[in-house]
Design goal:
This protein has 636 residues and is mainly α. Helix content is 61%, strand content 6%. The protein is built from 28 helices and 9 strands. The strands form 2 sheets. A 6-stranded parallel beta sheet has the order 1-3-2-4-5-7, sandwiched between helices. It has a 3-stranded antiparallel beta sheet with strand order 6-9-8. β8 and β9 form a beta hairpin. α1 runs parallel beside α15, α7 runs antiparallel to α9 and α10 packs across α12.
Length: 636
């Protein structure tokens, strides 16, 4: 944007956008809806870039090559620096497999397809997003994919009136918004990462740039102050009260887009824009907003990778480092590069990005610079097939994409006269018990057990009063209750992440118990929480040095996780006693004091207690279910 059209209040709006994103990533409990800052950035980008392009069209100086030259000079310097720094840090300080994963993210970032990579990797068993240092580049991918298309579409407006421009913007934006609204229900993750479902947000800004200036000034004169204040209030409410569930909904995406639209439309003369957004501090933060956005996430993500959790002191340190690096990038990289000739600068930056892209691909596909592994590390890094063990998408449903009717016939056997029907009902923490229960039934045929497994992701057992809002969870639980009413199993086994529900575990489990007893269930067995090796036991072990490359039998779990598990175990045991349930303290079986089993065999791949941080492996499930006191619960 030329200095003649420079609006400092938009830099102030950039400051708000980047700050809510940074706070959301560093202190998510404070601003659970802070992700809306990215939506605000999209509107700002659409407004500024389309405004420049339309002015060039009006002055007959429109050049797509010049546009891409500007994009390279704006985007590449800071991006190359952050990509290179992240790659070098990972080379020396993360595990070989994590380095390869980082290189994959680097290649996607350099190729501006990070959104498509994350979309392809999404799923129930995918690595937590906190452990992907370049995850935040998804928004750059969306933006640059938009700018591959939009400048070409604007060619259609050459020689046509402003009504045609506005009509083009509205038509494309409406198509994108309708598609986004429909995909939010069909494929929420795809709707979040797809460029087609995001274009409307950039086009909201483009609409402001296309509207006649006289009409905009008339609106500003009448309600400019109201629009500005309303927009800021909307941003505040959205950042504070929206959450991760809303992030997958295009409907809620209207909130930050409308807010940014109103603030920009209000104009620089509006009181809040003039006095607050245009003041020195917001403008200064706005000027470094792009490098700040790039730096802040890799810093905290690498802290998560190293320690599993980030204590408050590290949060403060990470914030300070983010601002220092952002300011240094702006002052020492971005500003000096503006003095370099355009052609030379573009050639150097383009060559650098292509080279980095090639190096990242060489790491991913050719093992370039990847350190060799010890035999123990190789075993720990071998993928554990949780999907097969838990019978994923067969008897353990994906609650986002499947319903109760998708359960395979073998998951829901009917009662048999010579068998006792045992039902596993709940989420993944119930599905993990299937291998042990299956082995028990095969090794102790005299018990006469017939196993039914009706479990689904992030969906603990519940009554009609337990409304989860998680995909098809409520419908799946309703189908399981119908199965219980019809088949009246003798034993029901429960486990789950009870703290994730809207109702307290005491209330929820009391209602579940009442329902089960009313329908002839003779025994309800409640399993408690397992030791939690957050973020991942295998990664924890990989970072340790063991004499002779041999794993110990027991270790101490991370202190914050141990405190939480101990407290929850005691709470669940009391709930079981209050409701007449049989209780299995998984923690007490696996742990002696604070020293907990990390393996039940010498096989470092199959014999570990958990496949991640608290989901049992098949070996651990079998070991637990054959303990005498647990085995006795299933005897006649």
């Amino acid at each position: 944007m030329s200095r003649a059209q420079y609006r400092p209040d938009i830099d102030g709006l950039r400051a708000i956008a980047v700050l809510v994103v940074v706070i959301f990533h560093y202190l998510p409990a404070k601003l659970p809806g802070g992700y809306i800052g990215v939506d605000i950035f999209f509107v700002i980008s659409g407004y500024l870039i389309t405004g420049i392009l339309l002015r060039e069209i009006d002055s007959a100086s429109y050049s797509i090559l010049r546009f891409y030259s500007r994009r390279i000079r704006r985007i590449f310097p800071a991006l190359l620096l952050v990509l290179g720094a992240s790659y070098l840090y990972a080379l020396f300080f993360v595990l070989p497999n994590e380095f390869v994963e980082l290189a994959k993210q680097s290649a996607a970032g350099a190729g501006f397809v990070a959104n498509l990579l994350l979309w392809s990797q999404s799923g129930y068993f995918d690595t937590a997003i906190n452990f992907k240092p370049l995850m935040h580049l998804w928004s750059l991918g969306v933006e640059e994919q938009y700018y591959l298309v939009w400048p070409l579409l604007l060619l259609l407006t050459i020689g046509r009136g402003k009504r045609f421009r506005i009509g083009l913007v509205l038509t494309v934006a409406a198509a994108s918004l309708v598609w986004s609204l429909s995909q939010s229900h069909i494929d929420p993750t795809g709707a979040f990462y797809s460029p087609l479902t995001r274009f409307w947000q950039l086009l909201a800004g483009a609409l402001l740039a296309a509207l006649p200036q006289a009409r905009i000034e008339a609106v500003q004169a009448r309600v400019g102050n109201v629009l500005s204040i309303a927009g800021v209030v909307l941003i505040g409410l959205g950042a504070r009260f929206m959450d991760g569930h809303n992030s997958l909904s295009a409907f809620w995406g209207l909130v930050p887009v409308a807010a940014a639209f109103m603030i920009i439309l209000a104009g620089q003369a509006a009181w809040f824009n003039r006095v607050v957004l245009s003041s020195r501090v917001p403008v200064s933060i706005g000027l470094i907003s792009y490098p700040l956005y790039l730096w802040h996430w890799p810093i905290i993500s690498f802290l998560y990778i190293r320690f599993g959790y980030v204590p408050f002191k590290a949060v403060v340190g990470g914030l300070l480092a983010s601002f220092v690096l952002a300011a240094a990038t702006y002052l020492l990289v971005e500003k000096p590069l503006k003095r370099v000739g355009e052609r030379r600068q573009v050639a150097i930056l383009l060559a650098g990005m292509v080279l980095f892209f090639a190096i990242s691909l060489a790491t991913v596909f050719g093992g370039f610079l990847v350190r060799p592994l010890t035999p123990l590390q190789q075993a720990l890094l071998t993928e554990y097939n949780t999907r097969e063990v838990y019978r994923f998408k067969t008897c353990f449903l994906d609650s986002q994409a499947q319903t109760g009717s998708d359960l395979a016939p073998e998951c829901s056997p009917e009662r048999a006269p010579d068998k006792r029907l045992v039902l596993l009902w709940g989420d993944s923490l119930t599905a993990q018990l299937y291998p042990g229960l299956k082995a028990l039934s095969e090794q102790h045929a005299e018990a006469g057990l017939l196993i039914a497994q009706r479990s689904s992701s992030s969906c603990p057992a519940g009554t009609p009063d337990d409304v989860s809002g998680n995909g098809n969870c409520d419908a799946i639980n309703a189908a399981t209750r119908d199965y219980i009413v019809k088949n009246r199993p003798e034993i029901v086994v429960l486990n789950g992440r009870w703290l994730d529900g809207a109702r307290a575990p005491e209330v929820r489990l009391a209602d579940i118990t009442r329902f089960l007893k009313e329908n002839g269930v003779e025994k309800v067995i409640l399993f408690g929480p397992a030791p939690d090796w957050w973020p991942d036991l295998r990664k924890m072990l990989l970072r340790m040095h063991f004499e002779n490359d041999e794993l110990p039998q027991r270790m101490m779990t991370p202190p914050p996780a141990w405190t939480a598990v101990t407290s929850l175990d005691d709470r669940m045991e009391k709930i079981a006693a209050d409701n007449g349930l049989s209780y299995v303290s998984v923690r007490k079986h696996f742990c002696e004091g604070d020293q907990c089993l990390i393996r039940v065999s010498d096989d470092a791949r199959e014999g570990l207690i958990t496949s991640d941080h608290d989901h049992m492996t098949a070996a651990a499930s079998i070991w637990l279910l054959k303990q005498p006191d647990v085995l006795a619960l299933f005897g006649r």
